[in-house]
């Protein structure tokens, strides 16, 4: 079944983690729609609760359907283990809960998904976890932000929405010098386009809600442990390096080695914070992942065709898409995601705010909504929706100026996608 290097990416996307169901022979992974699992006997229960044996107790912590999804994502990213969560934001919460104590800091790229900016600026601050912002186009700004309280660095490989490609290797060097893990949100690229662990990342996080699930029908998040970070030093990450009273004084990094971070996020984070994914959503996302390589290539090829067509349109002032040869991120795209630049792009309309409203009002094939990573083509005019509460200067700083339209290009026929934009632009002054 496998080539000399082990199974290829497309084979892993279909098979990793799965086997015919041992109880029934079912070929598709069954939806284990159960909250809890019967123990063999009292000793078995004791060994599960004490982390001496792997097995299922309760779906908040593990579930067999979810376990197949976790193994598949770990395989696709090239990590040692993964933990699924109810959403991308839940996965981020589990990561920082495992790494930070009140009073600690982390450095984050300024160019992030808007929801992450809110989560870091507001909810995380109320936990005493202080974000320090840095500029992904200026690596020195990351270096300058490091203090003795810094516990992690957080970036996106391909940033939402502007098509910003981050120089992962350069920031990984900063993280290494600071002795902190580099966390990479790989949602927009997916492991099909970009593999952050090969460039020095320590932890990968996903919103599986987007391209991994891929069909716009289920929320999910994932954490992937790269297995290379040394958690043992000087009590900097106490959840991993100090004895756990509830597990008989076990030290997680000693017992679990290169997947200790994933274990901690599960047996401390999921256990106590509780944002578990439902088995039904795990099943839907797992099914979506089977076609990830096909979909991501099609998304990228369609987006490239759309970006080139928009670049030549007389009502379009600019197009931001890293796949375009003249784009400022094109060289980084060629290095980190050579198979394609993904589905998401922004473009500016010469007609400004009113033209943006007109285009989103006149599209027919595109859906006007606030999401990305669906099979369907999606469109939004941030200035009149997600960013409408901001002042104009703030909108522009966030890449959501009055003229900006964002697309998540779907997997329909490229000619139909372009024809829809063509007729909407024709109706726009
Ligand atoms: C959507 C998204 C998130 C948040 O994920 P949810 O599943 O919506 O909680 C985080 N990062 C990026 C890049 C996203 O696009």
UniProtKB/TrEMBL annotation:
It is an enzyme of class 4 (lyase). GO terms for biological process: cysteine biosynthetic process from serine; L-homocysteine biosynthetic process; transsulfuration. Its cofactor is pyridoxal 5'-phosphate. This is Methionine gamma-lyase. The gene is mdeA_1. It comes from Hartmannibacter diazotrophicus. It holds the Pfam family Cys_Met_Meta_PP. The keyword Cytoplasm does not apply. The keyword Transferase applies. GO terms for molecular function: cysteine synthase activity; methionine gamma-lyase activity; O-acetylhomoserine aminocarboxypropyltransferase activity; pyridoxal phosphate binding. It comes from the Bacteria. The lineage of its organism: Bacteria, Pseudomonadati, Pseudomonadota, Alphaproteobacteria, Hyphomicrobiales. The modification N6-(pyridoxal phosphate)lysine is found at residue 210. Its EC number is 4.4.1.11. Belongs to the trans-sulfuration enzymes family.
């Amino acid at each position: 079944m496998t080539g000399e290097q082990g199974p290829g990416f497309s084979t892993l996307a279909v098979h990793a983690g799965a086997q015919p169901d041992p109880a029934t022979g079912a070929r598709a992974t069954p939806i284990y729609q159960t909250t809890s699992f019967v123990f063999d006997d009292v000793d078995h229960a004791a060994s599960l609760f004490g982390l001496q044996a792997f097995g299922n107790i309760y779906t908040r912590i593990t579930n067999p359907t979810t376990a197949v999804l976790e193994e598949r994502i770990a395989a696709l990213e090239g990590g040692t283990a993964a933990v699924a969560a109810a959403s991308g934001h839940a996965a981020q919460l589990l990561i920082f809960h495992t790494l930070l104590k009140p009073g600690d800091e982390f450095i984050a790229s300024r160019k992030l998904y808007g929801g992450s900016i809110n989560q870091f600026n507001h909810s995380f601050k109320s936990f005493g976890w202080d974000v320090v912002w840095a500029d992904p186009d200026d690596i020195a700004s990351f270096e300058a932000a490091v203090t003795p309280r810094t516990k992690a660095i957080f970036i996106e490989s391909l940033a939402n929405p502007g098509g910003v490609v981050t120089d992962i290797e350069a920031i990984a060097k900063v993280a290494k010098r600071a002795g902190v893990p580099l966390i990479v949100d790989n949602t927009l690229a997916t492991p099909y386009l970009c593999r952050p662990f090969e460039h020095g990342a320590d932890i990968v996080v996903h919103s599986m809600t987007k391209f991994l699930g891929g069909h716009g029908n289920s929320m999910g998040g994932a954490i992937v442990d790269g297995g290379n970070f040394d958690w043992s030093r000087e009590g900097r990450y106490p959840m991993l390096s100090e004895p756990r009273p509830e597990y008989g004084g076990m030290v997680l990094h000693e017992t679990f080695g290169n997947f200790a971070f994933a274990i901690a996020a599960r047996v401390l984070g999921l256990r106590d914070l509780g944002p578990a994914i439902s088995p039904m959503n795990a099943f839907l996302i797992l099914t979506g992942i089977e076609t990830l390589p096909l979909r991501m290539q099609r998304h990228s090829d369609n987006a490239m065709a759309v970006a080139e067509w928009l670049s030549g349109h007389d009502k379009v002032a600019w197009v931001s898409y890293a796949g375009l040869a003249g784009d400022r991120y094109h060289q980084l795209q060629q290095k980190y995601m050579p198979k394609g630049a993904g589905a998401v792009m922004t473009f500016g309309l010469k007609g400004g705010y009113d033209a943006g409203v007109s285009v989103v009002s006149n599209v027919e094939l595109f859906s006007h909504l606030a999401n990305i990573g669906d099979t369907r083509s999606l469109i939004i005019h941030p200035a009149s929706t997600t960013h409408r509460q901001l002042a104009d200067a703030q909108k522009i700083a966030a890449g959501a100026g009055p003229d900006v339209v964002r697309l998540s290009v779907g997997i329909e026929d490229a000619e139909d996608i372009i024809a829809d934009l063509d007729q909407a632009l024709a109706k726009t002054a």
